[in-house]
Amino acid sequence: MRVVVDTNTLVSALLWQGTPYRLFAALRATDGIDLFTSPVLLAELTDVLARPHLSSRFQRINKTVEQLVYDITSMFVVLRVEPLVTPVCRDPDDDEVLACALAAKADFIFSGDADLLSLQVHAGIQILTAAQGLALIGENGTSGR
């Protein structure tokens, strides 16, 4: 299974203990799941994690933004991605997620973004919430696809 995790879901997974966290843990624990990102998505992740209102979360987890981004870079395949020829979403950041998923030949995008989720499917790639992803692969990563 080939997966792209949108920045909003990834931030939630890294900084809180909710459904995105459980999904990310299951993705990492399941054999045969490859995670993909791009330099643009990593830059967005770095920018979001560096926002001042999140600084207290870093004190709780005893990591820096740089450490978290490094950790993610080591867990994901980082692809050079061409922009979409024709924009799909009103937000260019969402098009970056779609472009990464296309380059990765992804099966799924996991996101909390309403604009992406409203697409449901793009070029055969299913776009699911963290809860839907967790139901798909199972809490312990044992259900598989």
Write a structural description.
This protein has helices at 7-15, 19-29, 39-49, 55-61, 65-75, 92-104, 114-119, 130-137; strands at residues 2-5, 34-37, 77-78, 108-110, 121-122, 125-128. A six-stranded mixed sheet has the order 3-2-1-4-6-5, sandwiched between helices. The relative contact order is 0.22. Helices cover 52% and strands 13% of the residues. It has a single domain (2-137), classed as 3-Layer(aba) Sandwich (Rossmann fold). With 145 residues, the protein is α/β, with parallel strands linked by helices. The model has no long low-confidence stretch (mean pLDDT 92).
From the coordinates shown, what is the CATH architecture? 3-Layer(aba) Sandwich
CATH topology: Rossmann fold
Count of distinct strands? 6
How far the N terminus sits from the C terminus, by CA atoms, comes to 7 Å
Number of helices: 8
How many separate structural domains?
Answer: 1
Instruction: Specify the biggest β-sheet.
Output: 6 strands, mixed
**In percent, how helical is the residue content?**
40-55%
User: Considering the protein shown, what is the CATH homologous superfamily?
Assistant: 5'-nuclease
Give me the strand/helix succession. Answer: EHHEHHHEHEHEEH
The class by helix and strand makeup works out as alpha/beta
